[in-house]
Amino acid sequence: MDRRERERPRVVLGVSGGIAAYKACELLRRLTESGHDVRVVPTASALHFVGEATWSALSGNPAGTEVWESVHEVPHVRIGQGADLVVVAPATADLLAKAAHGLADDLLTNTLLTARCPVVFAPAMHTEMWEHPATQENVATLRRRGALVIDPAVGRLTGSDTGKGRFPDPAEIFAFCRRVLARGARAAEQDLAGRHVVVSAGGTREPLDPVRYLGNRSSGKQGYALARTAAARGARVTLVAGNTELPDPAGVDVLHIGTARQLHEAVLKAAADADAVVMAAAVADFRPAVYTTGKIKKVEGREPEPVALVRNPDILAELSAERARSGQLVVGFAAETDDVLANGRAKLARKGCDLLVVNEVGEHKAFGSAENEAVILADDGTETPVPYGPKEDLADTLWDLVAPRLAETRP
Fold first, then answer.
1. Cα four-point dihedral sign 31, 34, 36, 38
2. Residue 65 contacts by C-beta under 8 Å, 6 or more apart in sequence?
3. What does the domain layout of the chain look like in residue ranges?
4. What is d(CA 67, CA 162) in angstroms, rounded to the nearest whole number?
5. Taking a C-beta distance cutoff of 8 angstroms, is the pair 64, 70 a contact?
6. Which amino acids are annotated catalytic?
7. Which residue of 103, 140, 172, 335 has the smallest Cβ count within 10 Å?
8. pTM across the whole model
9. Are 316 and 332 in contact (CB under 8 A)?
10. How far apart are the first and last CA of the chain?
11. Residue ranges for the chain with pLDDT beneath 70
12. CA quadruple 6, 7, 8, 11: dihedral positive or negative?
């Protein structure tokens, strides 16, 4: 093995016996194409859904299920010992139960016992199985031990059933795993475990008539990055999402809204038991005073009537002034085009929030981009610059500032 191969992150992809096993092929493709060295360890049941040849061909590594294969290599110990990340996707109720109770009757469960790296479970099962007290207790046990268990999505299940238990989007599981790997040894710290955080994202749209609206350029990518990274650090995350085309982040409760007033209602309701609220959404300051029920027609030879505007609720100021609970942390965002820091400091003082993320916006800056650059201002006068880079890096830097503040308020 050459030096370049040794530096590739080593990922074990465990696959248990659920119908969602075929979706794990997409997760495997994303992991391998992004440069990870992946070893697939399916259970015997998983091979009823996707064969061993498929896993081996897609990963470029042998895929075995038995501890008795290649015994001289001691696979039941070595695979887990050498991994940088173990992700089980899908994780059935049976697999979660075995992992929680330390059973080791096949290669995958042995690997879970020997792994000393971060372990991620992506459950998929019927709603009744997920909600059963035994499964919930097993999940709680795994989380208490430091494992990351992604809550399943809500949607179509096997057959005609619909509910919570659907396998999360493979692209989002991949993004989740990348954040865990990026944090390295710190991933096990789970510094947001036991915390409920609310994040708003995306832009609001204020309707003029049935076909037109006032909006902005926000893509929602920064807010989604904040939600994703918080979940990877153990938080229970509620994402209040404005108008965006992004898939729901894995393991996050998502509330979809359209207008500023809908955002106001949803955020205040979600914030009632939140430890931290991060207002990353691009909220419209104004809305049309009158909504025209029919399409506004163009009349030849006549200029259009001026559009009268009224103010929308100032959600950030309201959250800061009326904390829903003692010790609640409120974080705002300021998108500025000039005098960025001066305007940011003034906004921090005016809004009364604890932290304010200030970034310059414009063509190819912040909105719609996968990268961002910002300065995080704190109410104690400190400033934390975040260099240009992926929006997930900015998100992790922000949570690095939030987590110790929350720790000071823990009973």
1. positive
2. 41, 42, 43, 44, 46, 47, 52, 106, 107, 108
3. 7-186, 191-409
4. 37
5. yes
6. 216
7. 140
8. 0.85
9. yes
10. 50
11. 1-6, 65-76, 188, 362-368, 410-411
12. positive
Question: 2 by DSSP, 3-state: which?
Answer: coil
Class of domain 191-409: alpha beta
- Give the Cα separation of 128 and 163 in Å (integer): 9
Q: Where are the alpha helices (DSSP H) in 34-169?
A: 52-59, 75-81, 93-101, 107-114, 127-131, 133-144
CB 216 within 8 A of CB 282: yes
Length of the chain: 411
The reply to whether 347 sits in an annotated binding site is yes
The token pair at 408 is 């000071």
Q: Is 98 annotated as a binding residue?
A: no
Class of the CATH-defined domain 7-186: alpha beta
Question: 118 labelled as ligand-binding?
Answer: no
pLDDT digits (tens, 9 = 90+) for 17-72: 999 999 999 999 999 999 999 999 999 999 999 999 999 999 999 887 665 455 44
CB of 268 closer than 8 Å to CB of 182 = no
Query: Annotated binding residue at 221?
Result: no
pLDDT in tens, 230-271: 999 999 999 999 999 898 998 899 999 999 999 999 999 999
d(CA 94, CA 100): 10
Q: What is the DSSP annotation of 256-317?
A: E--SHHHHHHHHHHHGGG-SEEEE-SB--SEEESS--SSPPPP-TT-PPPP--EEEPP-HHH
CA distance 328 to 144: 24
* Residue 171 one-letter amino acid: A
Is 269 marked as binding a ligand?
no
Confirm whether 7-186 and 191-409 share one CATH topology.
yes
